Amino acid sequence: MRLRYRRRRDQLVAALADRAPQVRATGIAAGLHAVLELPPGTEQSVLRAARRQDLALEGLHRFHDPTAPPATRDALVVAYGTPPDHSFAGALDALLRALPPGE
Q1: 54-78 as b/e, with b when 16 or more CB fall inside 10 Å?
Q2: pLDDT tens digits along 25-55
Q3: Distance between CA atoms of residues 60 and 58, nearest Å
Q4: Which of 25, 41, 69, 73 shows its CA 20 to 30 Å from the CA of 99?
Q5: What is the pTM of this model?
Q6: C-alpha closest to that of 34 among 12, 7, 19
């Protein structure tokens, strides 16, 4: 399973570099989630676009502690371990369509 999820993360990172270079995946390479750093001011529009693509994503703002200083970065939390194997490529393509256009 670890190798399967590592491959998915590698696919995500490669697809971002190729089709959305303005978005960067952060976090450790192990696990089932990645944080995608977005251009400033785009988190809400990307979440709306993701919903139109039938993707269930969370904005990083949802995980912000309300007692802490305001969050200053826009990002998504992407669970790349969630889609079944047969639909991962389609989910990744839908995610890329929801991201802001490159510069």
Answers
A1: ebebebbeeeeeeeeeeeeebbbeb
A2: 998 777 789 999 999 999 999 999 999 999 9
A3: 6
A4: 69
A5: 0.88
A6: 12
